[in-house]
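Hi U.,

Before I forget, here's the chain from the pilot set. I'm dumping it here mostly so it's searchable later in email.
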Amino acid sequence: MIDLWLKSLSPRREASAQETPTPPAPVTTSDGRPYGRRATDGQHWFHRIRGSLRQSQWASLFLRPPSFTNLLPWAHYDPKTQVFLLEDWRSVAALFELDPIPTEAATEASLEALSETIRNVIAEAIPEDDGSPWVLQLFSQDDTDLRDYLDELRAYAAERVPDNPLTEDFLQMMEAHLARVGRPEGLFVDTAVTGARWHARRRRMRAVIYRRIQPGAFLRSGFATYEDSLNEVCSRFLAALHSTGVHGRRCDDRDLYAWLFPWFNPRPALPEGARPLDLAAWGDEAPLPFSIDLAEQMVLGTPQSRDGAWWFDGLPHRCLSVHGLRTRTRPGQLTGERRQGEHINTVFDLMPEHTILAMTILIRPQDQVANHIARVKAASRVDTAEASIALEQCQVAEREMAQGNKLYPVHLAFYLRGNDADDLRRKVNDTHAMLINYGLQVIEPEDDVLALDSYIRNLPMNYDAQQDSRSRRSRLWYTSQIANLAPLYGRSRGTGHPGLTYFNRGGEPLTFDPLNKADRAKNAFALIVGPMGAGKSAWLVHALMQMAAIYRPRIFIIEKGDSFGLLGKFFASRGLSVNQVSL
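Structure:
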């Protein structure tokens, strides 16, 4: 009886000791299929994959690819000091937009004198710092979007006659006109003068001054912050440039965004006729929150890299690095207007569309350069031809430095963009051949193992002298050579008062205003001479229409041939008082 009672209390324990239990029947669904963890047929794909992965494999699914914006330096802009803070939150930078020096019809002697002045600016305006050296970057590129000029014209007219009924009609016509003449493919090939495709554009020239603050760096006496030190250097630099004829303005975060956003987002999904900045316009006048990173605002997509090129919005970009100089440089060699064989143009006129010139100058203390030359000179005292040439070059460098012609490390690069890989390859080959023809030795694209790195390093405010000591891409150039190649030369743009709008040979708007007292000393007179059919009447019709849209002046026209009859009817249709008398 006791045994039976014990068996009734623990039947499972006894069964496990005497016999193997029968496995339980699998649980099935209503239609007979297995259910639960044993199920394989009809189970959701997520549960099947999750169950077959190790923990490390499962965690790797949540990893993000390397961030392109982590390679960019811009962190924050302080509107009070007008200073950009870089990614380390210590280094400081400033951005400027420059108006170049006109070089049309300039004599060789005047260009040489101008180059000497620029050399002094580069050598003396920016101090030499041993621990955290200053960096000067110069950029040049063509901008075919002329809407900002249209905004300038609208503001200029609003200051004079705000309620002019003709103004808005004229601005609409100008907007359509600028869109037609500003097509990147050009309107025509100027075979008579430049030998290049002509289209309306603005050649933007920008300068960046910054330095990367190294650990343990100290401020010079008289400055409380690194921002104060930067602003002092910028004031000296702009004042020195002004003496050469180069005028500049300080840029803010809005200007940096307007420059770089179309660069990194060249082909976003947009409605027809819109531009990249219309997709993500800069915010209102209120400053961005302190936690907002400027670099993250510049890129919308996910850039990729392959075959030595960066791809933005499906368009390939590549950086060509200049390795050295093949011939003696001349003032304005890259962006100044000079006679090249049968044509008068600039080298930059012949570059492919969307090319960006980038020159990075490291203001290195000259005692360090002198020590480097001394080491090379000491190693050259052997009896070989190469050593003799190196020794001679060292002696020349020492004489030039003693005469004030300093040696600075320089990295000159050209950014190119193509519609596809084949188009980029053609542009790279054309640019490579052109630069060699004009005396620049370019690294062969097939041999450039640092092409992707060079693209990043030469971006605004992103050059690091410590990193260049490893890649060794910069080359020592005399300040006279830097002054000749610097993108500070260009064409005249007029006075900047858009009373009359024309275009120079490069397609840039050339403006002046005979009715503005700042543009004349006395009453203005004009004599227009040309053969029949040259466009004298058309020129006058355009001039009268723009003056009427801006000033609404009293105009007297005495003519023979009814060349201005339609203009009078147009004025009358826009609400202007017109009295027309025919004799």
